[in-house]
Amino acid sequence: MKKTIKNISLFTGIIFGSLTLSHAAIIPPGTQLAINQDIVLHNGSEPASLDVHKVESDVEFDIIHDFFSGLIDTGIDGKLNPDLAVSWETKDNKVWLFHLREGIKWSDGSPITAHDVVFSWRRLIDPQMASPYGSYIENMYITNAKDILAGKKKADALGVKALDDMTVEVTLEQPLSYFLQMVAHPVMVPISQKAVEKYGEKWTQPNVFVGSGPFKLAEWIVNEKVIGIRNPQYWDNAHTVINKVTYLAITSDTAVVNRYLAGEIDITKSIPSVSFNSLKTKLGSQVHISPKLGVYYYEFNTKKAPFNDIRVRQALNLALDKTIISDKVLGQGQKAAYNNTPPNTGGMNLKQPDYASLPLAKRIEKARQLLKEAGYNRNNPLKFNLLYNTSEDHKRIAIAVSSMWKKNLGADAVLQNQEWKTMLDTMHQSNFDLVRHAWIADYDHPASFLNNFVTNSSNNTSLYSNDIYDDLMQKAKTTNDMKYFQ
């Protein structure tokens, strides 16, 4: 997901345009503001949904962060700030109390209460909701979360309750050092119980939408744009500067750049890698490189051939020249990734795997041997489909990677392209061989990356399952000992 920017990462976002923020801001006295306080943003793909409990990526969470407030918010400096909760406390790091602000309201003017928080967290973990982030609350160690996800207990058994309209009590099964960081994630924002119960699946439609952030949904034209307008009921509306935000769904980076240069877009999320250097030279300070704590990778379907064989998975990994991909194919400051967790995540000195220091020729030699052992050769070459969502750079990377596999291993990767929402459905239906994936840390800790591969995690679309791995993850979270994260 988003928001942690403390570490140089394996994933670099390119921001193109002014750095005007669409959130509340303190304006220095005497500052001359533009008359028109509307902003147009490139948001990437079409959002899969704006239902907080049905989404799983920055495409949706970036909008949700503008339309909803959480109990806690993470500032651009990485610090935790009061949001709907004005304060919080604990005596034993297991029972937490969150005290809501007086007078906070939904965008329809109705009061936001602790009961909305309880309703929202129960809805998130309810197996009937089948949220992609359902496992998130389990990973917070909130009491009974594991049994609820397993269908052994009802959602109302979750260790969260409203002591009164303004106080939320959360009980953990064990202390968790990064619990508050997890509370600050957009998937944990409360939603209006009244609105959801009244409108059901239609509660995110513009004419009935109810939110709590600086903006509220005004219009949604599918595959074109989402429009948010200023929410006068927002608790910090006095410091909101922008009156209207338009989020454009454009998958062509070239088209985005052209519209930016034409003055139609104020901020973009990305620049075509082939144009980066020339645009940086031409536009100078309008181009910003924004480090993110994240990793870009390809995910195997580990339950079907050929990738149910660990030797095949290892061979494809070993045969890639990742520096060529980061420095030549992209060349925007990305770093080669040798595991799925950036090295300094959470301030931990995570070591790189042994193969990272091997010369490429040695890695390729080992990869060929592994494929041979798995039964693949010139007469029986490895063949599989490689799926990616629409993007010029995703396509460039897929072409480069498939060429390396062909040259180094004789493997044939058939490239397949789908739109973002379609690809998500394909992943959750396990109807793929190999798929483009990426993960931006939900919080600054290795567990944010590693939890995705725990057996039955709602984010585990690879279907990976290993009892030893699960046991190590349990010990790692219980002890917070760095050795278990290596």
TrEMBL record:
The lineage of its organism: Bacteria, Pseudomonadati, Pseudomonadota, Gammaproteobacteria, Enterobacterales. GO terms for cellular component: ATP-binding cassette (ABC) transporter complex; outer membrane-bounded periplasmic space. Belongs to the bacterial solute-binding protein 5 family. Residues 79-460 form the Solute-binding protein family domain. GO terms for biological process: peptide transport. PANTHER family: PERIPLASMIC BINDING COMPONENT OF ABC TRANSPORTER, PERIPLASMIC OLIGOPEPTIDE-BINDING PROTEIN-RELATED. It comes from Photorhabdus temperata J3. InterPro entries: Peptide/Ni-bd (IPR030678), SBP_5 (IPR039424), SBP_5_CS (IPR023765), SBP_5_dom (IPR000914). The keyword Signal applies. Residues 1-24 form the signal peptide. Keywords: Signal, Transport. Gene3D superfamilies: Dipeptide-binding Protein, Domain 1 (3.90.76.10), Dipeptide-binding Protein, Domain 3 (3.10.105.10), Periplasmic binding protein-like II (3.40.190.10). One of its GO terms (molecular function) is peptide transmembrane transporter activity. It is found in: Cell envelope. This is ABC transporter substrate-binding protein. It holds the Pfam family SBP_bac_5.
